[in-house]
Amino acid sequence: MICVSFVYATTNNQTVRRVQVPRDTNLSQALKFCEKKIQRPDMNLRDCTFAVWGETVQPNYRLKNGDRVEICRPLSADPKNLRKKRASRKKTSSIVRNQRRSF
To answer: Which domains does the chain have, with CATH numbers?
Structure first.
């Protein structure tokens, strides 16, 4: 048996579950084996991607003793669009400040 940690983080907290799985277990087998131990009400494992120590892995990834499997939630918004919105807000606010100075 090997020990693997499953990590799930939300905006406000992080949940870590350590589980024992048989040697030569891949990620998808481990998820089936311990799904009830790591499942949370706000999590749908089918929509998630997975990473081990920050590197994205496929379901056939062979787990090693001590691996830290990160359960990555789907994005709630497109980061590119969010950056554009922030940039346009900054641009608008700087225009307003410059107009005030000119009076």
So the answer is: 2-74 (3.10.20.30)
Cβ(30)–Cβ(67) below 8 Å: no
Mapping DSSP to helix (H, G, I), strand (E, B) and coil, where does residue 4 land?
Answer: strand
Convert the pLDDT of each residue in 30-39 to its tens digit: 988 877 777 6
Q: How far apart are the first and last CA of the chain?
A: 74
User: CB burial class (10 A; 0-12, 13-18, 19+) of residue 24?
Assistant: exposed
| Widest CA span in the chain | 74
Task: Report the candidate in 20, 1, 14, 5 with the shortest Cα–Cα distance to residue 51.
Answer: 5
pLDDT per position as a tens digit, 83-102: 888 888 776 665 555 555 55
